[in-house]
Design brief:
This protein is of the alpha/beta class. It has one domain: 2-enoyl-CoA Hydratase, Chain A, domain 1 (Alpha-Beta Complex). Helices cover 41% and strands 20% of the residues. The protein has nine helices and ten strands. The strands form two sheets. It has a six-stranded mixed β-sheet, sandwiched between helices. It has a four-stranded mixed β-sheet with strand order 4-6-8-9. Helix 1 links the parallel strand 2 and strand 3.
Length: 202
């Protein structure tokens, strides 16, 4: 359900559970965390999904069993954020719930025109992952972060672009090509220079 390809320093991680809207089980989250932790020699990493939804967040049955409150979400987003390479979330569709943490932890986010963005954590009775509000606020500002987390706003791709939540909207058949294009200069640079620029931009 998690696919990994590695080619010339480019790691591509794909959520492949389209029949369940790429909802995440504990096993999938642990596997993603392991990959992100081990990707220290990656020059660039692209995170994407199959089907029309990037991820609906926690698997429903797993959430009922306590996954929604697990620290694995924070461990995953922390591992992605700590990577020295360029990280790109290529959002093939809607981003919802706990899956927000993965995308927020990436350096860049691009999406297809039909993507929607919502994080209905408050009405479900949970706090967001500890680092998510800060990362979200850094991208969209405090009022818009509250609009999403407290107002229950469901953003369209155009609104996400206008808010600064995503950097570009790309037609679906060109999404991965655009992600690879964005990684081109980083892959061509020495790791030290790429990491240095990333650190300067923090």
């Amino acid at each position: 359900m998690i696919e990994l390809t590695r080619e010339d320093g480019l790691w591509t991680v794909t959520l492949n559970r389209p029949d369940k809207a790429n909802s995440l089980t504990l096993e999938m989250l642990e596997e993603l965390t392991r990959i992100a932790t081990e990707a220290q020699d990656a020059r660039a990493l692209i995170l994407t999904g199959t089907g029309k939804v990037f991820s609906a967040g926690a698997d429903l049955e797993a959430a009922k069993a306590g996954l929604a409150k697990s620290d694995v979400w924070e461990r995953l987003s922390g591992a992605i954020a700590a990577l020295p390479c360029l990280t790109i979330a290529a959002l093939n569709g809607t981003l919802a719930g706990g899956a927000f943490g993965m995308a927020l932890a990436c350096d860049l986010r691009i999406c297809v025109p039909g993507a929607k963005f919502f994080y209905p954590v408050m009405k479900l009775g949970f706090l967001p992952q500890p680092s998510d509000p800060g990362r979200l606020t850094a991208l969209v500002g405090p009022a818009r972060a509250r609009l999403i987390l407290m107002g229950g706003a469901k953003l369209t791709a155009d609104e996400a672009l206008r808010f600064g939540l995503v950097e570009r909207i790309v037609e679906g058949d060109a999404l991965m090509e655009e992600a690879r294009t964005l990684a081109t200069d980083t892959l061509a640079a020495t790791p030290e220079i790429a990491q240095g620029i990333k650190e300067l931009c923090r």
